[in-house]
Design a protein that fits this description.
four-stranded antiparallel β-sheet, globular, 2 domains, Alpha-Beta Plaits, six-stranded mixed β-sheet, Rossmann fold, alpha/beta
């Protein structure tokens, strides 16, 4: 399906709570069938942004539109149009899987017969039939999330918001969940996801990075990895990661060091190749077996770099 139609539009979206600016002049667009991921540390403004887009919170300033509907002027119409789920989705633990889905289908559809038909369609789509008579409280985390998704799509929404949808779910269940999301996107459903999992961010068509309410980066994962770190990223192997981190931390040309299993990623703050500088520093500390090489940054590297740079800017301005 050609994804040319914009289904989510935010222009100068802002939310203040007293003196706190939770979301600060945020603008972006999301096209039909696109998977858009919103990243950022806790308190960055992700949930506030998603609640404004869903018509739950009224923006202090700015404009937002969902599937052609003005969020500020007609929030109730937006709520009837979208699907929404989160890690705290309101399932009823004492109701069965079928009863939970039927409950939400009746709320959205009204007609009992049509609601029952749609409930069966959704259970078939998400492979929930074998759990139809199991109470929600008995389900594992992965199946609870699948049930939550089923409840959120009973009315066939063109836009689906997922706020930390796989938090606390095991990796296999997360992968299966994302396979379902891809199928929905292929059918033309627009997906707006907030997540803390960097591997999930890599799965998105477009990602935006929020920092203290501001949009610090926006683009495809590949574009963000290429453009968000103006300096360099290096991988160090063959020596104790803890020793490497302690040796390089605080050096003037090092912005951030992070351990990834038996490797260390080093993000520098200068654009020139510093492979030799890193190697010389490690050799001076007796780490002669270290293997140092430039590497392609990951989304997590970008996350760490932006967080480091923004935190430093705040300190310098205090």
């Amino acid at each position: 399906m050609a994804r040319s139609d914009i289904t989510i539009r935010a222009e100068g979206l802002t939310k203040r709570f007293g003196n706190l600016v939770a979301v600060d002049d945020v603008s972006f667009t999301v096209r039909q069938g696109e998977v858009f991921g919103l990243l950022g540390p806790n308190g960055a403004g992700k949930s506030t942004t998603i609640r404004m887009l869903c018509g739950i919170l009224k923006p202090t300033a700015g404009y937002a539109e969902i599937a052609g509907i003005n969020v500020v002027k007609t929030p109730e119409q937006v709520k009837r149009t979208i699907g929404y789920m989160s890690q705290r989705f309101g399932l009823y633990d004492d109701l069965t899987v079928r009863e939970n889905i039927l409950f939400y289908a009746r709320l959205y559809i009204g007609n009992w017969k049509k609601a029952a038909e749609r409930a069966n369609e959704v259970m078939e789509k998400l492979e929930l039939h074998s759990y139809a008579n199991t109470t929600a409280g008995q389900l594992s985390g992965g199946w609870r999330q699948r049930l939550a998704l089923a409840c959120a799509i009973t009315h066939k929404p063109p836009v689906l918001f997922l706020d930390e949808p796989t938090a606390g779910v095991d990796p296999l269940s997360r992968r299966m969940f994302w396979d379902i999301l891809y199928d929905m996107a292929a059918e033309g459903v627009t997906l707006f996801v907030t997540t803390h999992y960097m591997e999930e961010a890599e799965r998105c068509d477009t990602i935006g990075f929020l920092w203290h309410g501001k949009l610090a980066a926006l683009g495809s994962p590949e574009k963000i990895k290429k453009t968000s770190i103006p300096a360099g990223v290096y991988t160090i192997k063959g020596v104790s990661p803890a020793e490497v981190v302690n040796t390089l931390k605080g050096l003037p040309f090092v912005a951030e060091t992070s351990q990834y299993g038996s490797e260390v990623h080093v993000i520098t703050n200068i654009p020139e190749d510093v492979t030799h500088k890193i190697r010389e520093q490690l050799m001076a500390m007796g780490l002669n077996q270290a293997r140092v090489a430039p590497s392609v940054p990951s989304i997590e590297d970008v996350f760490m770099y932006i967080s480091h740079e923004k935190a430093n800017n705040i300190k310098q301005n205090e």
